[in-house]
Design a protein that fits this description.
By secondary structure, this protein is α/β, with parallel strands linked by helices. It has 11 helices and 13 strands.
Length: 340
């Protein structure tokens, strides 16, 4: 079967494509390369000995998507392409609303025109909002996220529900995941953000490798065990396998119509300070850090209840924090300048 993966050159997209081609799917990947590198897919091909059809395209271009869907007959779409930094979204809300919402609207419209009904959306735990009780469970109502990034995810999930209400053939899965870290154990593909990293592990890696002087930890006065924010971190390979499980389930359940949401997480909350200390212990390297004032939009602590994914999709996280941090550092050491 042929699958379109948008944002396929990105961190999660490239790891997911590796899982898909290893399983036997025919993959077409698109990406505008604004925060990614096509080298990630070349390396996916080298690991898997399978080919990936890459097309440089932007979901903001309706005409490009129309042309793409005319050229290929897709059985399903996995949608990663989006701007994804919580802090940046607060500074640039219009960019996030335009790219994430309008781009997805283009994609869904072209899918409708092309009669493609299977859709897997890269969502986020932020859809539960800042007042949801932990652990997050899928039956909870969509909340009021504290950032435009999170709100864009809520709008898209709402779009999926509204489409399924009128199109009884539409089949959607929203994968709400938490904080992916780590890299493929080969060290050949990993997370390579452009510019100053917005995520914790790439920043720690760059401090450890000597590219940055120190890590800023935003807030040490939260109501957590050590005062720093707590998150549910999971290995990116586990996350990628979750997309494969979701796609298998979707394509094998012909009677299913509508939209289902699944949390992908470990169910354990780990603090920023714990990440730093464990990284130091696992990789035998010291990380310089300072505490700074809280960042707008950051929540104190949240983690997943992923029992639904285990029961329905047969998925659960396999890798522990030690493995996540070992693989993350292995990627950085082998690629001190990322894909460049």
């Amino acid at each position: 079967m042929k699958v379109l993966v948008t944002g396929g050159c990105g961190y999660i997209g490239s790891h997911t494509i590796l899982e898909l081609v290893n399983f036997g799917f025919d993959v077409v990947a698109i990406d505008n390369l604004s925060n990614s590198s096509v080298l990630s897919l070349e390396r996916v091909e080298s690991i898997s000995n399978k080919s990936v059809n890459f097309i440089e395209a932007d979901i903001m271009s309706f005409e490009s998507l129309v042309s793409l869907f005319r050229e290929h007959s897709f059985d399903a779409v996995i949608h990663f392409a989006a701007l994804k930094a919580v802090g940046e979204s607060i500074e640039k809300p219009l960019d996030y609303y335009k790219n994430n919402i309008s781009g997805t609207l283009n994609l869904l419209n072209v899918m409708k025109m092309s009669n493609v009904k299977n859709f897997i959306f890269s969502s986020s735990a932020t859809v539960y909002g800042e007042y949801a009780k932990v652990p997050y469970k899928e039956h909870m109502s969509l909340g009021s996220p504290s950032s435009p990034y999170g709100f864009s995810k809520v709008v898209i999930e709402r779009m999926m529900l509204d489409i399924s209400a009128i199109d009884k053939e539409f089949r959607g899965i929203s994968l709400r995941y938490f904080n992916p870290i780590g890299a493929h154990e080969s060290g050949i593909i990993g997370e390579d953000p452009h510019g100053i990293p917005n995520n914790l592990l790439p920043f720690i890696n760059q401090v450890a490798i000597g590219k940055r002087e120190k890590l800023n930890i935003f807030g040490n006065d939260y109501n957590t065990k050590d005062g720093t924010c707590e998150r549910d971190y999971l290995h990116v390979v586990d996350l990628a396998s979750g997309h494969l499980n979701a796609l298998e389930w979707l394509l094998s359940n012909n009677s299913f119509h509508g939209v289902e949401a699944f949390n992908l997480g470990t169910g354990c909350a780990v603090s920023v300070l714990e990440i730093v200390k464990t990284f130091e212990a696992v990789n035998n390297i010291k990380i310089n850090y300072d505490f700074k004032e809280r960042r707008p939009g950051d929540l104190s602590a949240f983690w997943a209840d992923s029992s639904k994914a285990k029961e329905v999709l047969g998925w659960s996280a396999k890798y522990d924090l030690k493995k996540m941090l070992e693989d993350s550092w292995n990627w950085q050491v082998k690629n001190p300048n990322g894909y460049n």
